[in-house]
Design brief:
Helix content: 40-55%
Structural class: alpha/beta
Low-confidence stretches: 107-119, 121-133
Largest sheet: 5 strands, parallel
Distance between the termini: 40 Å
Radius of gyration: 24 Å
């Protein structure tokens, strides 16, 4: 996909170009109408990102999205009246921008026909005004991260079940959210369940629901995660910690597309795509008798391994910059600069907690460092 960035701000052009390149898009930049018109004359672009809706370069057939500092309703109406496909205010939320780009450039494509249940679920969510969850970008330009993004893009549109593996803190949940967002189920629910956080005696009720009176504390009927995710995606985190009894029932649900609430003898059909994640080696767990081999083959049609941060330390400067901007937005402060030596010091660390640990470190450095983040700050606070 080719995107033209038409913006008078050099920093905004560079920032957008950098971020979109990481997302796998081809970009060109222009600072005025004349430069944009020259590029448009020799290159067919799929989309234009612009700071104003009144550029003369926008008079062609190329769709455009307006990114502006004016957040008024009147400005939005004017932009849409001039033909803008969408209108976003600055500072730019990259998740919203990528969603807008996807909507704009894919609205003419013929989507795969979803099931009746999924279509009904999506319609119901739109009618109720259910918000689309924000999804952070997957940051990284290393070969490891590039390969992982390519695999996500290949797998996301299909219905295959995916097993996401990797150490704690590497971003397995983020991968699951990207798989859901890029799928035909994107408008339907994305439901999470942490199998390690739920006691073994309650996991079946959590997954499949229960009827009133099924056990002592069951004072009313309750839907489980499978029913709540009907038509959408169920993300089962830390599936390697699930009991064998619960594994057997999950296997039946995947095989028959049916679940049965605890305390009921009635089957309920469900249409759910299951994404699972674990920090364990499930093949070793199978050898120890802790995990069912047949369930492993059911959930692991495609396996996506999320690399540890030490395996792609070249991405640490990009990640550090991303987190510094994110934290500055959250704290409503200016983004702190970080010295080159400080970035080198960050790259030399082992980061046993991976991306999560790096994010916490950048927040700590934002709070405790001086005007700039130095190598001494990294040694002192990380």
């Amino acid at each position: 996909m080719k995107v033209l960035i038409l913006d008078r701000s050099k920093s905004m052009r560079n920032n957008l170009r950098e971020r979109l390149t990481y997302e796998g898009l081809t970009t060109e930049v222009a600072d005025c109408d004349a430069a944009a018109e020259q590029l448009l004359a020799r290159t067919p672009f799929d989309l234009i990102l612009t700071d104003e809706a009144n550029h003369t370069a926008l008079h062609g057939d190329t769709p455009f999205i307006v990114l502006t500092e004016q957040g008024s309703i009147e400005a939005a109406v004017e932009a849409l009246r001039r033909g803008a496909e969408d209108y976003l205010t600055r500072p730019i939320d990259m998740n919203r921008l990528m969603q807008a780009i996807h909507r704009t450039t894919h609205h003419d494509e013929e989507p795969s026909v979803p099931s009746e249940r999924r279509r009904a679920t999506a319609t119901r969510r739109k009618r109720c005004g259910a918000p689309t969850a924000r999804v952070e970008a997957i940051i990284g330009a290393s070969p490891e991260m590039t390969r992982m993004r390519e695999l996500i893009n290949k797998v996301a549109p299909c219905e295959a079940r995916v097993l996401i593996t990797g150490e704690n803190g590497t971003g397995k949940e983020l991968v699951a959210r990207h798989l859901h967002r890029a799928s035909q189920r994107a408008e339907a629910p994305f439901v999470e369940v942490n199998c390690a956080a739920i006691p073994s005696e309650l996991i079946e009720s959590e997954l499949f629901g229960h009827e009133r009176g099924a056990f002592t504390s069951a004072i009313k009927q309750r839907k489980g995660k499978f029913e709540l995710a009907d038509g959408g995606t169920l993300f089962m985190d830390e599936i390697g910690d699930m009991s064998l009894a619960a594994q057997a029932k999950v296997l039946r649900a995947l095989q028959e597309h049916k679940i049965c609430r605890v305390g009921s003898d009635r089957d309920i059909e469900v249409d759910v795509r299951v994404l699972a994640a674990t920090n364990k080696d499930l093949k070793e767990e199978i050898g120890r008798g802790n995990f069912r081999e047949d369930l492993y083959h059911r959930i692991g049609v495609v396996v996506i391994r999320v690399p540890a941060l030490r395996e792609h330390s070249d991405d640490i400067p990009l990640l550090a910059d991303h987190f510094l901007h994110l934290i500055a937005t959250e704290y409503h402060t200016d983004c702190k600069e970080i010295e080159h030596e400080a970035l080198e010091a960050l790259q030399q660390r082992r980061w046993s907690g991976n991306i999560r640990e790096l994010r916490n470190a950048m927040e700590r450095l934002t709070i405790l460092s001086g005007e700039k983040i130095t190598a001494d700050d990294v040694r002192l606070y990380c």
